[in-house]
Design goal:
Strand order of the largest sheet: 1-2
Number of helices: 2
Number of domains: 1
Radius of gyration: 16 Å
Helix content: 10-25%
Structural class: alpha+beta
Distance between the termini: 15 Å
Shape: flat
């Protein structure tokens, strides 16, 4: 599976689709995210699901991971991948 801007996606019908903005309200402020377009629907967001506009409890989740013994690098890798 190729990333939407990856050259490997050429001629698959799912390459270079661009991105759109999504406004998400969190516990403390509003955040503008760049969401990649995905015509083939391979991508399913895990942290903020599709069509969801509010995001709460993120800080609590990070603190919980940290207090359970995860390093900041492990937490970062968990959020990225």
């Amino acid at each position: 599976m190729a990333i939407s801007n990856d050259i490997k996606g050429n001629d698959t019908g799912n390459s270079r689709n661009g991105k759109s903005n999504k406004n998400v309200r969190g516990d403390f402020s509003e955040l503008v995210l760049d969401i990649p377009r995905n015509r083939k629907d391979y991508f399913e967001p895990k942290i903020i699901p599709k069509h969801k506009r509010t995001f709460s409890g993120f800080d609590d989740k990070i603190i919980s991971m940290y207090t359970s013994g995860m390093t900041t690098r492990q937490i970062q890798n968990q959020l990225i991948y």
